[in-house]
Amino acid sequence: TMDAGKIAGLNVLAIINEPTAAALAFGISKGSDQEQTVMIYDLGGGTFDVTVMKFDQDDIEVLGTAGDSMLGGYDFDQAIIDAVSQAASAQGLNVESDPVAKQDLQLKAETAKKSLSSKNKTNIMLNIGGRPFKYTLTKEDFEDLIEPLLFRTVSSVMEACDEAGLDYSDLDKILLVGGSTRVPLVKDTIKEETGLEPSNEVHADEAVAIGAAYHVLDKVKQYKENPETTPVSTDSGTPTPSFDIDIPDTGKQYSFSDVTSHGIGIIAYDDNNNPFNTVVLPKNTKVPAEFSANFTTSVPFQENLNISVTQGEDEDVQYITVIGETEIEIAPREQIVPIQITISCDDNSIIHVNVFDADKNQDLGEMYIDRVANLTEEEVKQNQLKISTLDISGE
């Protein structure tokens, strides 16, 4: 996200998680002075997040989070695509072998999904290899296709409440966010599971953007009052922020605290050299936060430390994700060396890893982590150059 801001020529002041942004939109536009416990059910095109939050008059506190980064409206589309492809195959037609038909089906599956939010059936018309093909999809058939996917969201709803230490009866409201929550079965599934009627009080597509806008107004106000706290990029291609603007009164101000949505840890090795995951920064820890754990080198005279930073709570390395790796040199010694690793998460949910040589009492500093999802500085600069050549004036 911060790389995207740099590429666009923006000075990124802060990062806010989507569920928290949606909660801000609700709190400022619909909230009351009474304490409320609210669940944000955010089902977008490609990801699913569920967050339990507590509102009081001035604060929003995240109590528990869960979700599925590989679940969203695209999976609803794919369920339709698979059903249509199988039906076509039964008639001797291969959608996969016809790129035009395949693309057409992708678009029409999404249209059919949206249509079935208000209709009982819809037709998907294709031309596959020069032959016409018609598939009728009923609302009932569509709901049968996506029911297993919605069961996966129910698991996350249960997990978020467990993390928050709450029962469904403790929730005052469930807010629906994300375009995929417009599918009627989503609302029905949540109501059946929790006993609560989900609310559409915030705009499903706009809530996150509105909340982020409220947040940036608050940030700009802070920086106008305390200019020395303003973050200024050292990148010559990024402008120095200017806050010479009037700040509208939103009528309500919230402070908020987020939590880590996953455990962050390190891969260690047992006496038989088998790898296992060690969580250093636990899931659902209020941020900013910092935790340390003690490790050792594996053999005498070891010269390098290979550090793999992980995301996930399981000890088995098959069930976690390596989010970054690095290798550092240490002074070789005859004995096994104690190493302390500190993992912190800042206000923007950026992970930092520091390594400390406990034998030499030497701080090795913050280690550069080659995060697999990130662009290199050179790639950022190349993309900045590409963007600068585009004419996006609309003229």
- Enumerate the strands of the largest sheet in spatial order, edge to edge or round the barrel: 6-1-2-3-7
Terminal CA distance reads 28 Å
Strand residue percentage: 25-35%
Element-level helix/strand string: HHEEEHHEEHEHHEEEEEEEEEEH
Question: What general outline do the C-alpha atoms trace?
Answer: globular
Radius of gyration: 25 Å
Report on the biggest sheet.
5 strands, mixed
Total count of helical runs of at least 4 residues: 8
Q: Overall mean pLDDT score?
A: 87
Helix content: 25-40%
Low-confidence stretches: none
Counted beta strands? 16
Alpha-beta classification: alpha+beta
What does this structure look like?
The protein is an alpha+beta fold. The chain is 31% helix and 28% strand. It is built from 8 helices and 16 strands. The chain has helices spanning 2-7, 18-30, 73-90, 99-115, 139-164, 184-194, 207-225, 377-388; strands at 36-43, 48-55, 59-68, 121-128, 131-138, 173-177, 255-257, 264-269, 275-281, 289-296, 304-311, 321-329, 338-345, 351-357, 362-366, 370-371. Helix 2 crosses helix 7 (207-225) and helix 3 (73-90) packs antiparallel against helix 5. The protein starts with a helix and ends in a 7-residue tail after the last helix. The relative contact order is 0.13.
